[in-house]
Write a structure and sequence with these properties.
By secondary structure, the chain is α/β, with parallel strands linked by helices. It folds into two domains: 2-240, TIM Barrel (Alpha-Beta Barrel); 243-271, no CATH class. Helices cover 41% and strands 14% of the residues. It contains eleven helices and eight strands. Helix 6 (128-136) links the parallel strand 4 and strand 5 (141-146). Helix 4 (68-79) packs parallel to helix 5 and helix 5 (100-114) crosses helix 6.
Length: 271
């Protein structure tokens, strides 16, 4: 928006500069215009249009059911609310695995139809071909390793990843492969803090953690979780900054009361 042209936009280059200067990167998920506007106004650096929309917006048990069209819908809603933040869009399950040609066309659709700034893919060496192909089109790619929710049926559990030495070694190889391929940043989810800190030191690109300790370059949380709107989700890595579930419930109860008692609307609220 031209009105806000004086706002310094966050780019992949800015994130790299932040890592180099030792400044922590802040990232939250966003799925709609209204919430994205508030998050952006607050000064969050990166808004992730997560496939977690499948859970928090659509009520699915996993991230697998969400479609490319639905991700584009959420992403375009977010983009319209943002002036400063970098908007990263998750590529949904089935839109890039095992077929780099399809990966490229999915990524192009996301960028063209949503106006997002980058895409995020889950996985390591098995998706390198897709990552490289997307990058050839000039589309920035963020990686995602550790607990990769799209692979939930392969692992069969959401427990902490890479506790065993061989899995930790594999993770480091994957991180380095993604870095070499040209990813501008990598999310590490639910892995031991010391391993995540080691990775952040060993690679030049920013490492964003979720449940990966404080030794990384930035943090990401699901906005509905950190606001306490999802009251039944309480993993160890989550800090709840609010109990909006309770606050919203109270507001709805008051509204019901006021409508039933005839208190709302009053004279001043009528024409």
């Amino acid at each position: 928006m031209s009105v806000h042209s004086n706002v310094k936009k966050v780019t992949t280059h800015v994130l790299q500069e932040m890592k180099n200067a030792g400044e922590k990167i802040t990232m939250l998920t966003g799925y709609d215009y209204t919430m994205a506007r508030i998050i952006d106004t607050a000064g969050i650096d990166v808004i992730l249009v997560g496939d977690s929309a499948s859970n928090v917006m659509a009520g699915h048990e996993t991230t697998l059911p969400i479609t490319l069209d639905q991700m584009i819908y959420h992403a375009s809603s977010v983009v319209r609310g943002v002036n400063r933040a970098l908007v990263v869009v998750d590529m949904p399950f089935g839109s890039y695995q095992g077929n780099s040609k399809e990966a490229l066309s999915s990524a192009i659709r996301i960028m063209k139809e949503s106006g997002g700034h980058a895409v995020k893919l889950e996985g390591g060496q098995e998706i390198l071909e897709s990552v490289s192909r997307i990058l050839t089109a000039g589309i920035p790619v963020m990686g995602h390793l550790g607990l990769t929710p799209q692979s939930i049926y392969k692992f069969g559990t959401y427990v902490v990843r890479a506790r065993e030495e061989d899995e930790a070694d594999r993770l480091i190889e994957d991180v380095k492969a993604l870095e070499a391929a040209g990813c501008f940043a990598i999310v590490l989810e639910k892995i031991p803090a010391d391993l995540a800190a080691r990775v952040a030191k060993e690679v030049t690109v920013p490492i964003i953690g979720i449940g990966a300790g404080g030794g990384v370059d930035g943090q990401v949380l699901v906005v509905h979780d950190m606001l306490g709107i999802n009251n039944e989700f309480n993993p160890r890595f989550l800090r709840k900054y609010h109990n909006l579930f309770q606050e919203m419930l109270s507001s709805f109860h008051l509204y019901i009361e006021d409508v039933r008692s005839g208190d709302f609307p009053n004279e001043g609220e009528s024409y």
